[in-house]
Amino acid sequence: MSPWKAANVGDHVNTIDTPALLLDMDAFEHNLNRMMSALDRHGVRLRPHAKSHKCPQIALRQIALGAVGICCQKVSEAAVFVEAGVNNVLITNEIVGQTKLKHLMDLAAKAQIGVLVDHASQIDALAKAAHLRGVTLDVYVEVNVGANRCGVSPGLAAYELAEQISSTENLRFAGLHCYQGTAQHMRLPTQRAQAIAAAAQAALDTRTLIEARGIPVQTITGAGTGTFMLERDSGIYTELQAGSYIFMDSDYGRNELSENEVSFQNSLFVLTTVMSRPSEEQAIVDAGLKASSVDSGMPIVWQRDDLQYVKASDEHGVIATPDGDSLSLESRLMLIPGHCDPTVNLYDDIICVRGEVVEAVWPISARGALL
Amino acid sequence: MSPWKAANVGDHVNTIDTPALLLDMDAFEHNLNRMMSALDRHGVRLRPHAKSHKCPQIALRQIALGAVGICCQKVSEAAVFVEAGVNNVLITNEIVGQTKLKHLMDLAAKAQIGVLVDHASQIDALAKAAHLRGVTLDVYVEVNVGANRCGVSPGLAAYELAEQISSTENLRFAGLHCYQGTAQHMRLPTQRAQAIAAAAQAALDTRTLIEARGIPVQTITGAGTGTFMLERDSGIYTELQAGSYIFMDSDYGRNELSENEVSFQNSLFVLTTVMSRPSEEQAIVDAGLKASSVDSGMPIVWQRDDLQYVKASDEHGVIATPDGDSLSLESRLMLIPGHCDPTVNLYDDIICVRGEVVEAVWPISARGALL
Questions:
Q1: pLDDT tens by residue, B189-240
Q2: Across the A/B interface, how many CB contacts are shorter than 8 Å?
Q3: Cβ separation of A76 and B290 shorter than 8 Å?
Q4: Residue A177 and residue B215: Cα distance in Å, rounded?
Q5: Cβ contacts of B129 on chain A, cutoff 8 Å
Q6: Which fold has domain B42-248?
Q7: Domain ranges of chain A
Q8: I want to staple A78 with a disulfide (CB 3.0 to 4.6 A). Which of A62, A89, A229, B348 is the partner?
């Protein structure tokens, strides 16, 4: 990591070293509150996904505002948050292998931990490890509700796993994980509505079947920033996992919103500096693909429709400047990353800015927690 | 970062937690030696690019084998290597802004530091900062030899900057930076040969013009893993900057090699585990786009032509398994990353493996050094 930080508390924004990851605190707090008010009196809980921010300070704020806990993707990621005081984590993944199971059970001894399964052998392995450690674990059956990634088919296959969990010591059948990931970036509201209607129907069918056979399904969890209002209004989902809403990014910005959909503000930026101005047609900035993940497209230059970030190499970004001399050496630009989650994962700290002043520097403590 | 490491020295490879970044030491050492023998008695120096590995242990090995120093892309990256004992670093970038210049001069007080310029105002700012700190800096003029990124045009524009540097106290005109980056991944040998012939001609023309006006051009530096033999044989380049040769990746693997081109071995892998087997057609592994950068394409499954890594989300990878049941839960696969540099930048450590044993765990100390 860099031997020095991009900024310190109290610095003026003009002195922040670049490239740096900025959080606009006003926009961030607007997003936090907007989500809570969108869920108010709808009878659904928020369990935001912490893979987006990997930052305990953010998780603790979300919980203070009413989130029941957080989601993580990895055992080591969850461990960072538990260490920081988060006592309720759902790991939205299947966890296999002795090493990971041991770490998972160590966590379950300290906090309420949930985990997913989509195969009988995973349940056996979880039970054995939980028994050995003397802990109890919340186990959710992952159901494939249309994303075609992990998960069993809706219906009987899910019941069989639920039944196995229910009859196993040290495990508690907590509910169904029904995340429709591919719906999040469908561009049209009608496409998203159709996908989530199908997901909710699959979840309902599965819940009905399981409960008809005598096993209560307490929780149906899923949803992301692109569709959470659909799951909220489904009457089926009880817990929502949206994560990106706190930051937003240019890929989410390409979603067309219907009239009644809540919009969030861009709060996450990569601050970058023009380091070379080789021609009238282009400027080169110091933020490349190690500063802004390009898996979901190039970043967008904030509030500069005249400029286009056209190409990224490791540590260079090429900005097309069709209007010529509007940028000079040392000009600073704000970029909206293409995809917030993997961009945040490139930084050790997030520089929290209010107005023109650095208000805080928060460590992204779970950055790189891949295990 | 993860509170625990993927492996410790002495561990068997089968116990390495995943996803983990592996270095096959035999292949790595083969590559190190292969490069040195390829350059032996050709009158060119090697200054390998450390942006690929960001690992002092690797840089020190390269130097022990004969490299004259290293290249870095960032001031903070260079600082990590200087701190680790590397005393000769060329920062292959324009450095602008007071904060960066101050850190740069602090480095120049400890080691031989070079830097690029492509504008007169950069030279003025470097001179002022160097004078203030009482240090002398090597300054190279970056010439655009075909990559169309940074750099002045060949010829007179380069002379003007060289003349300005030569007549400025605290700065030493060290030569020309003539890196043709876009040639590295041209697929056909004839394309690469043509691109580097043009780059070498531009470098020669520029050197001739500058020297005719009385300023010696000591060094012409450039080249990457895709073309280094062409620069080696050009009679023009004196220093080569190849970096990826130590690791290789699937993007370099798509370059077609001519008969006389040196080939390197894949030494860098992402070890991953099957965590879900939702259908006959696909397996889900625990390495997604936070474990293997997809900017240059999906990873390739090592020595498993029957398997294709088809899709990455944050922490999931989808493997198409057309032959059905060949993979079970907990199966482990080795992935060749699409692009080595940004993949290495996702990890805190590289697990060095010889045969079936972990021989070392090297910190990737300059990971995330973006400033």
A1: 999 999 999 999 999 999 999 999 999 999 999 999 999 999 999 999 999 9
A2: 199
A3: no
A4: 70
A5: none
A6: TIM Barrel (3.20.20)
A7: 13-21+264-363, 49-242
A8: A89
